[in-house]
Description:
Blueprint: H1 5-27, H2 34-46, H3 51-58, H4 62-75, E1 78-82, E2 89-93, H5 95-115, H6 121-138
Antiparallel strand pairs: 1-2
Helix pairs in contact: 1-5, 2-5, 3-4
Amino acid sequence: MYSNQSELFHSINQFTRHFSKLLNESLVPLGLYAAQWSIIYRLKTGGPSTQKELSSYLGVEAPTMTRTLARLEKAGWIKRTSGQDKREKKISLTDAAINEYDTWLQSVRKSESQVLNNITEEEISTMIRLMAKMRENMVPGTYTS
């Protein structure tokens, strides 16, 4: 039925690996890794979150998230504060991270621009819709368009 199905998923997997590598090449000199950037970006755009919320949003297993958050905390980029439930900590960006955010964002945008060279706005919109539909098939309740 879907003759290009395997090629599609192989291509998505390869793209994400190569893009993560490209992001790391631009972010590591700034003291950050691509996986850490995803968390920082989410906290900046979505506000304080619990570890469970971050894990769910990013599709990352709890032990991996725990290690990444510990590294971000040690670097001084995030802080944990008590939430409504005393057992639950809200994670937010520190002032130091907020001060560095625009530098990190500029580096990420440069990588994105490189990847999107010769790609139209219409193609970008189509890809966003397709990815959202596929994500909905994996994680119901996530499709927003």
